[in-house]
Amino acid sequence: MPIVFILINSELGKEKSLLKEIRSISNVKEAHFIYGVYDIIVKVEAENMEKLKEIVTFKIRRLNDVRNTLTMTVPEGV
After folding, report:
1. Does the predicted TM-score (pTM) go above 0.85?
2. pLDDT value of residue 16
3. Whose CB has fewer CB within 10 Å in the chain, the N or C terminal residue?
């Protein structure tokens, strides 16, 4: 099952509401506040890469308070 981790920068002061919204998305397995360059880290699992791409592109990146993202794909079978 493909997995990605997404690092997210949110709009200032919107971290809490954005985290709640992200946690409500199906296929999101974990989502946490983090300190550093990014504000939130998200773990997403899906049946295939096409579904993952759809979740990241259309459900997470398009949320109102997402400023930018960095998506890291976990290689399968390693």
Report:
1. yes
2. 96
3. C
Six-digit token pair at 31?
């989502």
Tokens (6 digits) for 52:
């993952």
> Is residue 2 within 8 Å of residue 74, measured between CB atoms?
yes
Helices assigned H by DSSP within 1-78: 15-23, 49-54
CB 77: neighbour CB atoms within 10 A?
3
> Contact at 8 Å (CB) between 69 and 6?
yes
| Residue 27 DSSP one-character state | T
pLDDT category of residue 67 using cuts at 50, 70 and 90: very high
> Structural domains in the chain?
3-27+38-74 (3.30.70.920)
